[in-house]
Specification:
disordered N terminus, 20 helices, three-stranded antiparallel sheet, five-stranded mixed sheet, alpha/beta
């Protein structure tokens, strides 16, 4: 699912997470318990589960599950998208009750809940044997210290979505390098002052993904020790390119996911999107007038060599530690994100899979969406999924980090100034917050 800049997460809820996370670090984490046999037994006996999710396919997936396991009833609750749901989850953690059995959690937020001992380690139920069934990058996103805290639902390997009609009109070649991308941005804006190569008003998820593609690892965590270096080599590599676009006014400041944003994607005023593989469905549904204009290409690289991308967005499903029927919840989760019946429903709703069987399916690879001029776009996107397995990790309080991004890095976008200064301001805020929560934070 798409990953937007989340705001409005309560400081109290975030603080609770950090405090509990430190306790988890000190105690060494929770025990997995259970077994694969327990899952089979629970599914046969049946019961009732609660599932929190904003996934469009959730209702159809649950219906298919209940058809296969009629003794199990699953209540779906849309508790909000992203940070809105995380605030409610944190409130249940603080209260000690009220959490769902299974919940959807984005990859960037998962470490925060895992370290707080809020999620069940599923290794004991045999989930560690499922590693081969998922793309490396997404599997790495649900495992911490050899514990399995969920199963990937979708993946967001990044690619370059571009308006071929606009490129052809202005004689712009599809850029293979970031230098070529900047050149294309200048050529387009000079030819049409109302047109921009892309829209970027500042987004935490996009920033961390771009730093990851550049090889950056600005966040590391070991127990209660956190290191932050938003001036590392990868971060500097990204800002050296993106600063040119920001400081020269070559990026549209139109806010993503707004009505104006969709309109400008349709009329050619925004010519490219550098985003995750979940984007095609959004374009088809919300930018219908541009059908036939858009294409997909590999994400530009810094040297024009072998493709290297990163993930942007995506979610996992997890079993909450509060669940009173953990084996049944684990069984539902296993079916939800690894069975052919469920992933088929998910893909039919526009989801981009994380399961290797679906990623390698000839039918999936050979799809030729009319919207993209009959291009076999999944071939490009699946190739991207194979080159996004870098070692990028998130902070154990990344939800908070994203919530203050607009006040730090976002100001550089607003003022057209160096992103390095914005990253420095972000780092300062993150160091202070981590220390206030009791983490030992090293700033480089």
């Amino acid at each position: 699912m798409h990953k937007r800049l989340r705001r409005g997460l309560s400081a109290l809820a975030i603080g609770v997470t950090a405090t509990i996370a430190l306790a988890a670090c000190a105690s060494g984490g929770s025990s997995a318990g259970g077994s694969a046999d327990d899952i089979d037994k629970a599914l046969k006996e049946g019961g009732t589960l609660t599932y929190w999710s904003w996934t469009p396919s959730a209702k159809a997936q649950v219906a298919a599950f209940e058809d296969q396991y009629p003794k199990v009833k699953v209540k779906i609750v849309n508790a909000g998208t992203g940070a809105d749901q995380y605030t409610k989850l944190q409130n249940t953690i603080k209260a000690g009750s009220g959490a769902p059995d299974v919940a959807q959690v984005e990859y960037y937020a998962l470490p925060q809940f895992a370290l707080s001992e809020s999620l069940l380690d599923l290794s004991g139920y045999g989930f560690d044997s499922l590693e081969k069934d998922f793309a490396t990058s997404t599997w790495n996103s649900v495992t911490i210290d050899d514990k399995v805290y969920g199963l990937p639902q979708d993946s967001g390997p990044m690619a370059l979505f571009y308006n071929k009609k606009v490129f052809d009109e202005h004689g712009i070649e599809v850029p293979r390098t970031w230098d070529e991308y900047v050149t294309a941005a200048k050529k387009l804006h000079e030819a049409d002052p109302d047109a921009y190569i892309a829209a970027d008003s500042g987004d935490a998820g996009f920033t961390t993904s771009m730093i990851a593609q550049a090889g950056g690892t600005p966040f590391t965590t070991e127990g209660d020790k956190v290191t932050i270096d938003l001036q590392d080599e990868g971060s500097k590599k990204w800002t050296s390119t993106w600063d040119e676009l920001v400081e020269q006014g070559l990026l549209s400041k139109t806010v993503g996911w707004s009505d104006d944003w969709y309109k400008q994607l349709g009329n050619g005023q925004i010519a490219t999107l550098i985003t995750g593989a979940w984007m095609p469905g959004n374009l088809e549904a919300s930018v219908a007038d541009a059908s036939g204009d858009w294409r997909v290409a590999p994400m530009p690289t810094y040297d024009g060599g072998a493709a290297q991308t990163a993930n942007n967005g995506g979610s996992a499903q997890v079993v909450m530690e509060q669940s009173k029927n953990k084996a049944l919840a684990a069984g539902f989760l296993k079916w939800l994100n690894s069975s052919k019946e469920s992933t088929k429903v998910f893909m039919e709703s526009g989801g981009f899979p994380s399961t290797t069987a679906d990623l390698e399916s000839s039918a999936f690879l050979q799809e030729k969406p009319e919207y993209f001029g009959g291009q076999q776009i999944n071939e490009v996107l699946v190739d991207a999924s194979k080159s996004s397995d870098n070692d990028f990790t998130y902070l154990p309080y990344q939800v908070y980090a994203n919530s203050v991004y607009a006040d730090t890095v976002g100001q550089a976008y607003e003022n057209g100034t160096s992103l390095d200064a914005g990253l420095e301001a972000w780092q300062k805020a993150l160091v202070k917050y981590g220390e206030d929560q009791g983490f030992t934070v090293t700033s480089k």
